[in-house]
Amino acid sequence: MLENEANPTLSKSTGLPRKRFYRARAHSNPLSDSHFPIPISPHHVDYFLHYPQFFPSSDQTDGSKKIQFADIGCGFGGLLISLATLFPETLMIGMELRDKVTEYVKERILALRTANPGQYQNVSVVRTNSMKYIPNYFEKGQLSKMFFLFPDPHFKEKNHRRRVISRFLLDEYAYVLQVGGIIYTITDVEELGEWMKTCLQDHPMFEALTSEELEVDPVVKLLSSATEEGQKVARNGGQTFQAVYRRIAPSL
Amino acid sequence: MEDAPTELGDSNKDTEVAPALIAVHPSQDSVATAVGSDLRVFDFRQNCAVSLKDDSSEGSLHRDSIRAVRYGAHGKLLVSAGDDKLVKVWSTLSWRCITTVCSEKRVSAVAISDDGSYVCFADKFGVVWIVDLDTPDGQVVEFSPDGKYILSADRDFKIRVTVFPKNPLDGAHEIQSFCLGHTEFVSCIAFLCTPEYPQGFLVSGSGDSTVRMWDIISGSLLDTCEVGEKAGLLGSNGREAECYSAVTDLCTSSDGSLVAVAVQRQVPENFLLHPFFPCQVVPIRGGTFIPTSLQMCSSTGLLWMITGVSNLRGSEYPSLARVRVISGLKKSNSDSNEREPNVMDDNDIPGGAKLLEKLQGSLSYSEEVFLAAAEAVKTAMSNLLIKKQYSSEKREFRKRTRNDKKIKH
Ligand SMILES: C[S@@+](CC[C@H](N)C(=O)[O-])C[C@H]1O[C@@H](n2cnc3c(N)ncnc32)[C@H](O)[C@@H]1O
């Protein structure tokens, strides 16, 4: 607690980082150039740094255990925090463009690790532009789940190419997802919901989950409730639109 | 502010000079050069300059800088494309434009499938489009030698290997691999095929002054050649190469025995060399010559090179080009590895003065004009090769004016 006195960005009562110290611009342009480090290839991702408990020394990162879930545009990280305890043995990472928001999530995870020994060791976050660098982080078929929760809508037609779901980006997502892997999307913007659904529907390497499958998937319930954005929408009684699709092998 | 980075590219457009390009027919029936919006062809069969005919509805030649030109379909077609967002396919028999495809964006690279039925092009955002030439409409770098994959490179250092689709008009969605290892923009790719390995290895050149070799199926990096370093050390008598030297273009010989690489140096010496093999540096004497484009003819073994730019401000020659040819790159006989590369005299080049007059637009230029052009080529190449970066001051300014930073202090 003494430490928290010294660090005003951590809340005194909970020990967790306080969001107001990590406010950032509402929107970043994801197509602008980056000034953050990018791993040259998935082999260069520093697992030791992200998951020290799973990889006690840097030379034990032999590639036996890999990241399987990716939360794209994770924002303040609410979904990852929920998933961490639901899938304690699965490595997962959030990808976020805004540096302050990424810092916040980092602090949040570290604080949770300290407060709950042995837990939250499987979750981490990285500052990156997911529209450009997904293949630098994940190998072909590495991921089993990808999340796109309340992405920025980019309403203007000329900005549609900034959307994190597009025909072209779906090619990359299909590449990093294993066959059977699932892509989860949700939004409160009807037009964007339609857009994401159409992109997925038209793509030869994705098929919709049936309503029975959606029913039994424990993750689906988290889509609208686990993230900060989702909670805001729920508080305001907003409607949400989700599209959940499975990666399939392309037909021959 | 938000839009600045993406718009930067467009507003720079007027001042962006276009490097001259060269393409050689696989049997050296003809040679084409592109200087600015001007596409120039010399036909060796008729031994004369060609005037291209375009009776399509657009009814015009290119209206803006050409960024890509090459032969395809075993030399039956020539394709050109560029900043006017038009991809034009020319018959090399009639020299008529047989198809014009409109792209949504400016086009940076183009290729034609061996059977001549598809043209594949990449726009400046790295999106790859495929157009069926038989039914032009709809949507498109390099095909793998077996035609099963399309290779495309973008500004983010990666090379994407896409499976050529069963039904190309539905788009190419299945990614086979990414070749990851370059640390700067990939400037050129080509296949190196040998009789033992006909499916070929991919070789790529980059602004990071390396040439790398890849297995495209797995995307694994097989070899890296620091060509900048080699050219630097070998060229300037062990003096440190103080600046980075980008690879501007490369090409391979059809028997897979040679990769020719054009390297841009800050010091006025220029070289061609073969990585992965006993390295050989060929200095090009007679003025400052930074090849902007290279092509090796599979039948004659001649290496054709061009340097030049268009949109040159404040010069009496707003666009200029210089064509040079290297001979002696083919092994003299199969059991010797000896090569005697030689930069040919203008008079000895096939087609001679007549060809140079057509392709260069003029027979000769003075040395001063060339020095100016060399500067422009450097600028053009670094604009192409280097990722558009903010200057460090601008970046600092951006940081200082960011709201999220302000709160902290
Ligand atoms: C509206 S927020 C939603 C955050 C979170 N998923 C939630 O539901 O609360 C969208 C987030 O995506 C991030 N983002 C936008 N484009 C991105 C990109 N290209 N790469 C990574 N993150 C991106 C934004 O910075 C922002 O934090």
From TrEMBL, chain A:
InterPro entries: SAM-dependent_MTases_sf, Trm8_euk, tRNA_(Gua-N-7)_MeTrfase_Trmb. PANTHER family: 3-DEOXY-D-MANNO-OCTULOSONIC-ACID TRANSFERASE/TRNA GUANINE-N 7 - -METHYLTRANSFERASE (PTHR23417), TRNA (GUANINE-N(7)-)-METHYLTRANSFERASE (PTHR23417:SF16). This is tRNA (guanine-N(7)-)-methyltransferase. NCBIfam families: tRNA (guanosine(46)-N7)-methyltransferase TrmB (TIGR00091). S-adenosyl-L-methionine binds at G73, E96, L97, N129, S130, L149, T227, E228, E229. The active site is at D152. It is found in: Nucleus. Pfam families: Methyltransf_4 (PF02390). HAMAP family: tRNA_methyltr_TrmB_euk. It comes from Ficus carica (Common fig). It is an enzyme of class 2 (transferase). Catalyzes the formation of N(7)-methylguanine at position 46 (m7G46) in tRNA. One of its GO terms (molecular function) is tRNA binding. The lineage of its organism: Eukaryota, Viridiplantae, Streptophyta, Embryophyta, Tracheophyta. It catalyses: guanosine(46) in tRNA + S-adenosyl-L-methionine = N(7)-methylguanosine(46) in tRNA + S-adenosyl-L-homocysteine.
From TrEMBL, chain B:
Gene3D superfamilies: YVTN repeat-like/Quinoprotein amine dehydrogenase. It comes from the Eukaryota. PANTHER family: TRNA (GUANINE-N(7)-)-METHYLTRANSFERASE NON-CATALYTIC SUBUNIT WDR4, WD40 REPEAT PROTEIN 4. Pfam families: WD40. Forms a heterodimer with the catalytic subunit. It is found in: Nucleus. One of its GO terms (biological process) is tRNA (guanine-N7)-methylation. Its main location: nucleus. This is tRNA (guanine-N(7)-)-methyltransferase non-catalytic subunit. Belongs to the WD repeat TRM82 family. WD repeats lie at residues 59-100, 179-224. One of its GO terms (cellular component) is cytosol. Pathway: tRNA modification; N(7)-methylguanine-tRNA biosynthesis. Keywords: Nucleus, Repeat, tRNA processing, WD repeat. PROSITE patterns: WD_REPEATS_1, WD_REPEATS_2, WD_REPEATS_REGION. Required for the formation of N(7)-methylguanine at position 46 (m7G46) in tRNA. In the complex, it is required to stabilize and induce conformational changes of the catalytic subunit.
